[in-house]
Specification:
Layout: E1 17-24, E2 31-33, E3 40-42, E4 47-55, E5 66-73, H1 76-86
Antiparallel strand pairs: 1-4, 2-3, 4-5
Length: 89
């Protein structure tokens, strides 16, 4: 599966589902901003990733019916705080 763009956190609405929360390292040479604390997250080092998923209405001729977002957090505490805040626990 290809990597996807990781935009700002989606609003905490009912349509997004948390698929997994996993520790990561050596994943990408980029960096992100932690959605919880605003610190820089180096994706080459240890960090936590939250994968979100939702159904989408496909455009005519498109077979894609799911949308996926990946969020990078600096540590488990920030990931847990974001999940609590958005009601995704």
């Amino acid at each position: 599966m290809s990597k996807t763009c990781r935009p700002a956190p989606p609003p905490s609405d009912e349509e997004w589902t948390v698929r997994q929360v996993v520790p990561r390292s050596d994943w990408d040479a980029a960096s992100e901003t932690c959605p919880t604390c605003g610190e820089r997250v180096d994706l080459r080092g240890p960090h936590y990733q939250v994968e979100l998923d939702r159904e989408r209405t496909p455009e005519a001729g498109s077979k894609l019916t799911r949308e996926r977002r990946l969020l990078a957090f600096c540590d488990e505490g920030c990931a847990a705080a974001w999940l609590d805040e958005t009601g995704n626990r």
